[in-house]
Amino acid sequence: MYEDALVQVRLPDQPVTVGHVEVHIPSKQLLNDLEEDEITHAFYVASFCATGLFESLNVQGTNIILTEEQNQDLVIHVLARMPDDGLSVLWNPLEMPPAELESLAKSVADDIDIRIWKKNNPTDEKPQETKVENLSSENELVRHLRRRHP
């Protein structure tokens, strides 16, 4: 379907949905094997595939899932989603004591806090800002998390 110096886009032998596309990175097996610009390119291609699925198949959404397996290509799966498509990507959440969860949340918040990053990484260059979209309250996983951690 598409190929460049880093990625190959193709349909899988056994698709899990109509519109399942795979972005293969043949020379790599783990995400850590990639340079930052290669990661950016691979996920840009996956996002472009998702856009193509929206436009050509009129899908309701997509899931983008990375798989790493020894002795196989690193693969980004782009799954076209339709209502009642029968595909479940739910998982069982971990149970954590509230104090441990709060400590973890603070640690992550400190690591992603731009003010702390700027203090620890002084430079004239400004990091690119990322827009975070609101998650739909209809998303079952989001509702589950909100019920458990208001």
* CATH overall fold name of the largest domain: HIT family, subunit A
Gyration radius, to the nearest Å?
19 Å
Supply the CATH architecture of the largest domain.
2-Layer Sandwich
CATH top level class name of the largest domain: Alpha Beta
SS content category: alpha+beta
Number of helical segments with 4 or more residues: 4
What level of helicity do the residues show?
25-40%
Q: How many β-strands, per DSSP?
A: 5
Low-confidence spans: 132-139
Task: Describe the global form.
Answer: globular
Structure, explained:
- The chain has 150 residues and is an alpha+beta fold.
- 35% of the residues lie in helices and 17% in strands.
- The protein has four helices and five strands, in the order E-E-E-H-E-E-H-H-H.
- A five-stranded antiparallel sheet has the order 1-2-3-5-4, covered by helices on one side.
- A hairpin with a 6-residue loop joins strand 4 (61-67) and strand 5.
- The protein is globular, with a radius of gyration of 19 Å.
Please sum up the structure shown.
This protein has four helices and five strands, in the order βββαββααα.
Topology:
Blueprint lengths: L1 E2 L4 E3 L10 E5 L10 H22 L3 E7 L6 E8 L16 H15 L1 H7 L19 H9 L2
Which key features would you list for this structure?
alpha+beta, single chain, 2 domains, HIT family, subunit A, 35% helix, 5-stranded antiparallel beta sheet
